[in-house]
Write a structure and sequence with these properties.
By secondary structure, this protein is mainly alpha-helical. The strands form 3 sheets. A 3-stranded antiparallel β-sheet has the order 1-3-2. It has a 3-stranded antiparallel β-sheet with strand order 4-6-5. A 3-stranded antiparallel β-sheet has the order 7-9-8. A hairpin with an 8-residue loop joins strand 2 and strand 3. Helix 12 crosses helix 16. The N and C termini lie far apart (155 Å).
C-alpha cells in the first residue's frame, strides 16, 4: 500500500508578515546610512538667509514690504538754522539814494528848548487801555519808574533832531548863560554822560525833594548865581547842608575828604571808619594786607596822591537824583536796537521792519487786526509780554532811533521805494 505524498506546506499569513533575516539586515544598513547624511549636505535644500518680513495682515501686503527698512538720512549743517522770527526778508542790500539829514518831522522845532520838550514828550508809549498784557501792579510799577527818572535829555539827541552840531552847541552855550537850561556831566560815560535839563524842571525837582525848606532855598539861589558852573564852590555851602544835598542826590564830592561811610561813623575826617583809617590799621596784624589799608587802598583814597588833599579843598559836582537808572536804561536800549538791526544780513533794514522788531510783533490798530479781534482770533503778542515793556518800560521806537542816530551808532538813508532804511555803523 502506497503512502500518499504530503502536500507542500503553505506559509500562513502570520509567517508572511514576519520579516526575513535578510530584509532586517538591509533595513539596518539603510538606517545607518541615513544617520551619516543630513539635509545640510544636500544641494536641493537651502535655508533662508533672511527671515521673512513680518506682515500684520495678508490683505494689506505691499510689494515693498520685503525690502529692507532704513532710517531716513539726517542732514548735517555747519550753520544753525535761523528761527522764523530771525529770517532775513531782504537778502540783498537796500537801495541808497542819499542820507536823511534831519530826523525831526515837526517843523515847529526851531531851538534847543523846544527840542528838549519834544524829546521828553515823545519818550514813552501810552499804556494800552485794553489787552495790555499787564496787571495793575505792573502798570503801577511802570508809571512809578517813569516818574522817578530825571527830566533830562542827552546832547547827542538834540543834535540829531536839529542836524547842526555847531549851531546847536552855540545855542546851548547861550541858553546856559541866559539861565534857561543847565548842563549836567556824569564822568566816565563819554557822550552818554552829557545831559541837558531845563532850569524850571531842575527847580521843581529841588522843591519836590525831602530837603528842608531852608536848604532848598539856599541851593536854588546858588544854582541861579552860577548858571554855567558844573561844580559848586565848597565855601558856599556848610558841611551839614552839603551832606543833606549829597544824600538827596543833588551833589557829589570830587575829593576824598568826605565819604559815604561818614553816615555810619563818628564826625571827623573823611577816612574815619574806612579801611585806611588809623583805627582800622592799628588793629590789623603786622605784615598783612589790612595793615596797609586793604586791597585797593590807593584807589579808595582817590587815586595817586588823592589821600593827601586837605578836607577843606575841592568843589562839589552838580548831580541829579536817579541819573544812574536813566543812563543804564538808555545804554541797554541802545544795545538792544543794534542787536535787532544785526539780525539782517548786511546790518541794515527798512525802518518799518525795525519798528516791528522793536515793538515785538504786537497787534496793530488796522482794520484787519480789528476784524480778527472781533472774531476772537489771535492777532499778535500782547504788549506786556514784549521786551519793550518788560525791560524798557515802553520806550518808543522813534525816541531810541533818534538817540542812536545822534550817538553815531547808526544812520538813516532814503531807499526811494520802501521808505527810509536804517544802517548800523
Amino acid at each position: 500500500m502506497s503512502v500518499p505524498e504530503k502536500a507542500p506546506e503553505q506559509p500562513c499569513a502570520a509567517d508572511s508578515r514576519r520579516p526575513s533575516p535578510f530584509s532586517q539586515q538591509q533595513t539596518f544598513l539603510n538606517s545607518s546610512m541615513s544617520f551619516k547624511f543630513s539635509a545640510a549636505h544636500s544641494s536641493r535644500i537651502k535655508k533662508p538667509t533672511k527671515p521673512p518680513a513680518f506682515k500684520r495682515n495678508s490683505s494689506s501686503a505691499s510689494p515693498y514690504s520685503s525690502l529692507p527698512r532704513r532710517k531716513p538720512l539726517q542732514k548735517t549743517s555747519t550753520k544753525p538754522e535761523k528761527a522764523d522770527d530771525e529770517e532775513d526778508v531782504f537778502g540783498d542790500r537796500l537801495d541808497d539814494i542819499g542820507l536823511v539829514k534831519a530826523l525831526a518831522t515837526d517843523l515847529t522845532l526851531r531851538d534847543v528848548a523846544q527840542a528838549i520838550a519834544h524829546i521828553r514828550d515823545k519818550m514813552w508809549s501810552t499804556i494800552p487801555e485794553q489787552r495790555a498784557g499787564m496787571n495793575s501792579t505792573r502798570i503801577a510799577e511802570v508809571l512809578n519808574f517813569r516818574a522817578s527818572l530825571p527830566p533830562i535829555v542827552t546832547v547827542s539827541h538834540v543834535q540829531a533832531l536839529l542836524n547842526s552840531p555847531t549851531t546847536v552847541e552855540r545855542e546851548i552855550a547861550e541858553l546856559i548863560r541866559g539861565g534857561a537850561i543847565r548842563k549836567v556831566v556824569v564822568g566816565g560815560r563819554g557822550s552818554l554822560g552829557e545831559a541837558l535839563i531845563l532850569v524850571r524842571d531842575l527847580d521843581n525837582m529841588v522843591e519836590r525833594s525831602a530837603l528842608e525848606q531852608e536848604v532848598k532855598g539856599k541851593f536854588i539861589a546858588l544854582l541861579h548865581e552860577y548858571p554855567t558852573a558844573l561844580k559848586l564852590p565848597r565855601s558856599q555851602l556848610s558841611e551839614d547842608d552839603a551832606k543833606m544835598l549829597m544824600h538827596a542826590g543833588f551833589l557829589t564830592s570830587s575829593t576824598s575828604s568826605w565819604t559815604a561811610t561818614d553816615v555810619f561813623s563818628r564826625p571827623g575826617d573823611g577816612s574815619r571808619g574806612t579801611a585806611t583809617s588809623l583805627n582800622s590799621i592799628s588793629k590789623a596784624a603786622s605784615g598783612s594786607l589790612a595793615a596797609v589799608g586793604g586791597e585797593g587802598a590807593v584807589h579808595a583814597a582817590g587815586g595817586s596822591g588823592g589821600g593827601t588833599r586837605l578836607p577843606s579843598t575841592g568843589d562839589y559836582s552838580l548831580a541829579l537824583p536817579t541819573t544812574g537808572p536813566f543812563l543804564k536804561l538808555l545804554a541797554n536800549a541802545r544795545a538792544h536796537l543794534l542787536s535787532l538791526l544785526g539780525k539782517s544780513k548786511y546790518r541794515e533794514a527798512p525802518e518799518s521792519l525795525l519798528r516791528q522788531r522793536w515793538d515785538g510783533g504786537i497787534e496793530t490798530d488796522d482794520a484787519a487786526s480789528a476784524a480778527r479781534q472781533i472774531r476772537g482770533e489771535f492777532a499778535g503778542v500782547l504788549p506786556g509780554r514784549t521786551r519793550k515793556w518788560k525791560q524798557f518800560y515802553g520806550i518808543t521806537f522813534e525816541w531810541i532811533l533818534e538817540e542812536c542816530a545822534g550817538a553815531g551808532l547808526l544812520e538813516l538813508f532814503d531807499t526811494g521805494s520802501i521808505g527810509r532804511g536804517v544802517r548800523a555803523l
